Amino acid sequence: MNLRPFLRDDLTDLTPYHVGQPPHRVKADANESPFDLPPEIRHELTEAIAQLQFNRYPDPSSDLLRAQLCEQLRVDKAEIVVGNGSDELIGNFMLAFRKPEACVSFPTPTFSMFGILAQVAQIEAVGLPLDDRFDLDPAAWKAHLDAHVINLVFLSYPNNPTGTNFSTDAIREILARPDTLVLLDEAYYEFSGHSLMTERERYPNLVITRTFSKAYGLAGLRVGYVVAHPEIVDELNKVRLPYNLNRFSQLAATLLLKRPDRLAQHLQLIRSERERVFNALKAIEGIYPFPTDANFILFRTDSPAPDVFQRLLDHGVLVRNLDRPGPLKNCLRITIGTPEDNEMFLAGLRG
Q1: Which H or E element spans position 191?
Q2: Cα–Cα distance, 37 to 30 (Å, whole number)
Q3: pLDDT at 41
Q4: Which of these, 280, 285, 304, 338, is most buried using a 10 Å CB contact count?
Q5: Buried b (16+ CB within 10 A) or exposed e, 105-128
Q6: By CB neighbour count within 10 A (0-12 exposed, 13-18 middle, 19+ buried), where does 18 fall?
Q7: CA-wise closest residue to 135 among 169, 177, 165, 174
Q8: Cβ-contact 285, 276 below 8 angstroms
Q9: d(CA 98, CA 239)
Q10: Strands (E) located in the chain
C-alpha cells in the first residue's frame, strides 16, 4: 500500500526533533539541572505512591498543583493552566489562536520548537535575526508586525541558546500593539531573576510559560505551566487534552514547591559556577564566551566547532554543537553542572 497520498506535503521537509546521545560521563547538552530529587522528596514520593490509584485518571485540572503555584506567584487559579511540559502548552497556544491570517514570529537564533510547532499547526512562521548584541531590533520587528493582521510572537526570556535577556523596552513596544499576542517563555527565569510577570495587568495580551524541567530538576516528568489572562486560559483549555498531566508528575511538582530552601541552594551553586566557568572560558586562548543569565553558556571557538565537540566527547563530556552558518558559526553550548562536571569540561577544553 502506498502511504504517500495520506502524508502532509507541508511536513515533507520537517525533521523530527532529535538530539543524539553518544556515550559520555558528563551530560551538559540539554540545559538540565545537575541535581536529582532530594532524598526527603524521594521518600515522600515513595510513601505517596502506595496511596495512588493507578486505575483512576489524574485530576484533569491539576488543582493541587495550581493552588501551590497560585500561592507562590500570587495569581488567581483562573490564570493558570498546567501542561505536560511547556512544549505542550506552546503547541496548545498555537492551536488555540491559529487563524488563516495569523503569523507566528520569533527571533533567530532561538528555541527551535517555536518553528517546529508552528509548522505542525500550519501557521506561517517567520524568524527575525537578532542584532549583533543578540537583542531584538525594534525597527525590524515593527516593520514585520505592521505587515500582518494577527501576530503571535514567541520570545524566550532569557533566550536559548544565547542566554541573553531581550530589552524590556523592545518587548513592551511589541506588547503595546493591539494586533499581537506575546508568549514569553521564561523557562530559565529562576537562573536570571528577570521576569515580566508583573506586566500582565498592563498587557492582557502577555502569556508567560514556565517549566519544572530546568531549575526544579523535573525534566524526566515533564511539567510546565502558563500564566495568562483568564480568557486566554479558557481558550487553551479548549484545545488541551484531558488528563494531560499524570498523577505522579502532579505530585512531584507539588512537593518540590514546598521545598524552596533546596531550590535556593541549587540556584546559588549554579550561579556561582556559571560565573566561575565563564571567567575560566575567557582565559582560554581561542575561546569566546557570551554573557548569560541562564544555566548555560554559549561560546565561540577559533577551531572548527565539530573538532572541539569531538575532543570534549573523547574526554567524556557531551555538550551541544550549535555550529551553523551565521551568528552561531563555530559555537557550542555548555550546561552548567556540578563543580566536578564543570572542571572536567574545562580540562577537556584546555586539551
Answers
A1: helix 189-192
A2: 18
A3: 86
A4: 280
A5: bbbebbbebbbbbbbbbebebbeb
A6: exposed
A7: 165
A8: no
A9: 11
A10: 26-27, 80-83, 102-108, 124-129, 150-156, 180-185, 206-211, 224-227, 287-289, 296-301, 317-318, 320-321, 331-335
Query: What gap in Å lies between CA 63 and CA 272, rounded to an integer?
Result: 35
**Which amino acid is it at 99?**
K
Please, which pLDDT band fits residue 101 given cuts at 50, 70 and 90?
very high
What is the per-residue pLDDT for 196? 97
Res 20 pLDDT > 80: no
Around 115, how many Cα atoms within 13 Å sit in the side-chain half-sphere?
15
* Rounded distance between C-alpha atoms, residue 219 and residue 168, angstroms: 28
Whether the full predicted model's pTM is greater than 0.85, yes or no, is yes
| Euclidean distance between CA atoms 283 and 286, whole angstroms | 9
Domains in the chain, start-ordered, CATH in brackets?
Answer: 20-37+261-350 (3.90.1150.10), 50-257 (3.40.640.10)
Cell numbers that stand for 247 in this block:
498523577
Residue 47 has, within 13 A of its CA and on its CB side, a CA count of 6
| C-alpha span between 183 and 171 (Å, rounded) | 11
Residues in the chain: 351
Please write the tens of the pLDDT for every residue from 291-315.
999 999 999 999 999 999 999 999 9
SS3 category, 30: coil
Q: Give the three cell numbers for residue 319.
A: 555538550
